[in-house]
From TrEMBL:
GO terms for cellular component: mitochondrial matrix. Residues 339-607 form the Aminoacyl-transfer RNA synthetases class-II family profile domain. Keywords: Aminoacyl-tRNA synthetase, ATP-binding, Ligase, Metal-binding, Mitochondrion, Nucleotide-binding, Protein biosynthesis, Transit peptide, Zinc. The keyword Metal-binding applies. InterPro entries: aa-tRNA-synt_IIb, aa-tRNA-synth_II, aa-tRNA-synth_II/BPL/LPL, Anticodon-bd, Anticodon-bd_dom_sf, Thr-tRNA-ligase_IIa, Thr/Ala-tRNA-synth_IIc_edit, ThrRS_anticodon. This is threonine--tRNA ligase. It is found in: Mitochondrion matrix.
Length: 720
């Protein structure tokens, strides 16, 4: 009942919507005429410009006259850069603000007092270029949706999907979502028709035109669409509101956009999905159309090839083939790790544990549930409550709210504070593999990459300010060892510094940031100015997988606030009580998510040291009882000899004595990605040897058990 009441207001004007489209266009035409005669307020007679593109930089001294004010940044670029370069320009940034290249300098300089301007131009190869290109294509999709469904459709939101990494396109693109009345559905068969509408708009070479409007006028123009009214109401008072027109679509939008639609040379609508308006289950269920577009047709072909490979590598598909894990509707977002998946999980944990012992970490176990007061002390209750699972404990006379922990840091603070600490004990490095729970929306749950229950190789380092630099250096070396040396990923580091709102004094921040910069010397890193958390600067580490996708896994975060919230102290050399610094540090991050990324990176072809299926043994003939016995004997002998050699690695060995043909057994073993396949016949039985081949079919040869184990031990030692 609640849902029907809350959604009714979105649908009440549908029978007037066609008329509203016409009124919308009429408003646009009238406003455009008024804008053309609007006087400017320019008080600058001379202008110093620096035009930039990539490494190129061109300073200009401009006399601001009526002819110049009619020019646009795009026209100016044509006078400075090569024509083939300018043809790929999509958007410009003027004094750090993204701006339409079709804006006249009369619009740009209006009310501006400074006569110095930097204009930087961007192509599709940049993050800025992709964002604007895909945003513009979303508007073309909106135009096609209105053309197809007319007055039965109410458009909602149409953003670009952009990664911070310019080279990443696999998960990029755009979508537009809308509500269709009378339970009408967009079908996959209609995507091709929508593409044709879009291609027609592209072919007609429509420019993206912009006008500024007031909040009151915006309400009047979009009164037929409650979704747009919701957006308008959330715009802060005094903030400028703009509308853009492309083809027949007039849409509320902050922009900017590409110069015209003909720059889009390839477009593909990829999928459909449903989503509640603003993620609220009490709001209407919208239909969302996703797509991708490119300025060159060849780029779409390359993207489709990459997508096909990504689908083959999907960790959910590989997990099903290899019996690693599954999910069940009775426990959404919580993986069930099967025996082979558990082997893989435990191997990763054992690997990190081994490194902890080398690097001076102490592993601890902390509770799962805490009273609300702990989360209020840490600040999570105020800022993170909606993402936590809570339990009400008690009787009708007294109830207490219990929060299931979404992170370990408050528990580690209690542990640090459990006794008086001396400066001689610092740094204290606490590591924890306890399961964590976060109340992720059901619609966002995706395999192992987005779950509700997960484990982190989580650690908190309590140290003095003077120890920060050396501890950060150790953390970075740890990250490099794991990702580069063991797993072979390329790494990128981002340093995020003090934001506008922060805790602590500036001198402390400056010193910490300088230490982090010095630690990053020699690494591939970039600065994200002002993007740090309010409680401390941080280093985010991204890995590049075999499909050129970037993922953030590891993070190193300084925290000046949490020690103060918990009033943590240590006794200094002068017997003063000093507040320590906390370093939040995760290497693999969520182990579940890392398994997903590693599965897709390796396409399920696990290295020997990590593989839950290391060796497969089968006889030439399962009907030969002696060979069957010899297969069992070889397996037992491997374990016995390994123990005698002091190797307690619990090799994962399977013996297939079924009546399948030998060829079928070998093929099945290769599909399941066993590293080694031992085929045993009369010759091997007589000589007490094994015939060894790799999963790619390469014959290693005939070996004694000791020689086989020597090879395996070297693979374990070198993490191969």
């Amino acid at each position: 009942m609640t849902n029907s009441i809350s959604t009714q207001r979105y649908f009440s004007l549908s029978n007037k919507q066609q008329q509203a489209f016409e009124e919308r266009s009429k408003h646009w035409n009238e406003l455009k005429q008024q804008e053309n005669i609007k006087p400017n307020n320019i008080n600058i007679s001379n202008l110093n410009l620096v035009l930039k593109f990539g490494e190129k930089s061109k300073p200009l001294s401009i006399v601001v006259d009526s002819e110049f004010l009619k020019k646009t940044p795009l026209q100016l670029a044509n006078e400075v850069f090569y024509k083939n370069e300018v043809s790929e320009f999509l958007v410009c940034k003027i004094n750090g603000k993204l701006t339409d290249m079709n804006d006249t300098f009369s619009e740009i300089l209006n009310n501006q007092e400074s006569n110095n301007n930097n204009i930087e131009f961007f192509t599709f190869e940049s993050v800025e270029g992709k964002e604007v290109f895909w945003h513009s294509t979303a508007h073309i999709l909106g135009c096609a949706l209105e053309q197809k469904f007319g007055s039965s459709l109410k458009l909602c939101d149409g953003p670009p999907l952009v990664s911070k990494e310019a080279s990443q396109v696999l998960n990029g693109g755009f979508f537009y979502e809308g509500f269709l009345e009378n339970n009408e559905r967009i079908t996959t068969e209609q995507l091709e028709e929508l593409e044709k509408f879009m291609q027609q708009v592209v072919k007609e070479k429509h420019s993206f035109q912009k006008i500024h409007i007031t909040k009151e006028l915006a309400r009047e123009i979009f009164k037929y669409n409650q979704f747009k009214l919701d957006i308008i109401e959330k715009i802060p008072s005094g903030e400028p509101i703009t509308m853009y027109k492309c083809g027949n679509l007039v849409d509320l939008c902050r922009g900017p956009h590409i110069p015209n639609t003909s720059m889009i040379k390839a477009v593909k609508l990829t999928k459909l999905s449903g989503a509640y308006w603003k993620g609220d289950e009490k709001s209407p269920l919208l239909q969302r159309v996703y797509g991708i577009s490119f300025p060159k047709a060849k780029q779409l072909e390359d993207w489709q090839t990459l997508i096909e490979e990504a689908l083959k590598r999907d960790h959910r598909l590989i997990a099903k083939k290899q019996d690693l894990f599954f999910f069940h509707e009775y426990s959404p977002g919580t993986p069930f790790f099967l025996p082979h998946g558990t082997r893989l999980f435990n191997k990763l944990v054992e690997f990190i544990r081994k490194e902890y012992r080398k690097r001076g970490y102490d592993e601890v176990i902390t509770p799962q549930m805490f009273q609300k007061e702990l989360w209020e002390t840490s600040g999570h209750w105020q800022h993170y409550k909606d993402d936590m699972f809570t339990v009400i404990e008690g009787t009708q006379h007294k109830e207490e709210t219990i929060g299931i922990k979404p992170m370990n840091c408050p528990a580690h603070c209690l542990m640090f504070d459990s006794k008086i600490r001396s400066y001689r004990e610092l740094p204290v490095r606490l590591a924890d593999f306890s399961p964590l729970h976060r109340n992720e929306p059901r619609g966002s749950l995706t395999g192992l990459t987005r779950v509700r229950r997960f484990h982190q190789d989580d650690s908190h380092i309590f140290c003095t300010h003077d120890q920060v630099k050396s501890e950060i250096e150790n953390c970075l070396q740890f990250v490099k060892f794991v990702y580069s040396e063991i797993f072979g990923f390329n790494l990128r580091f981002n340093l995020s510094t003090r934001p506008e709102k922060f805790v602590g004094d500036i001198e402390m921040w400056d010193k910490a940031e300088q230490s982090l910069k010095e630690c990053l010397d020699g690494y591939n890193w970039k600065l994200n100015e002002g993007d740090g958390a309010f409680y401390g600067p941080k280093i985010d580490i991204q890995i590049e997988d075999s499909l050129q996708r970037f993922h953030q896994c590891a993070t190193i975060q300084l925290d000046f606030q949490l020690p103060r919230r918990f009033n943590l102290k240590y006794q200094s050399q002068n017997d003063q009580l000093i507040t320590p610094v906390i370093i939040h540090r995760a290497i693999l991050g969520s182990i579940e998510r890392f398994i997903a990324l590693l599965t897709e990176h390796l396409s399920g072809r696990w290295p020997f040291w990590l593989n839950p299926r290391q060796c497969f043994i089968c006889p030439v003939s399962a009907e030969n009882a002696s060979l069957v016995d010899y297969c069992k004997e070889v397996k037992d002998q491997i374990f016995k000899t390994a123990e005698e050699r002091g190797v307690f690695s619990n090799y994962f060995i399977d013996v297939d004595l079924s009546d399948k043909t030998m060829k079928k057994k070998i093929r099945d073993a290769q599909v399941l990605q066993y590293n080694f396949i031992l085929v045993l016949g009369e010759k091997e039985m007589q000589e007490k040897t094994v015939s060894v081949r790799k999963r790619d079919g390469t014959l290693v040869g005939t070996m004694k058990i000791d020689a086989l184990l020597s090879m395996w031990e070297e693979l374990l030692r070198t993490y191969q």
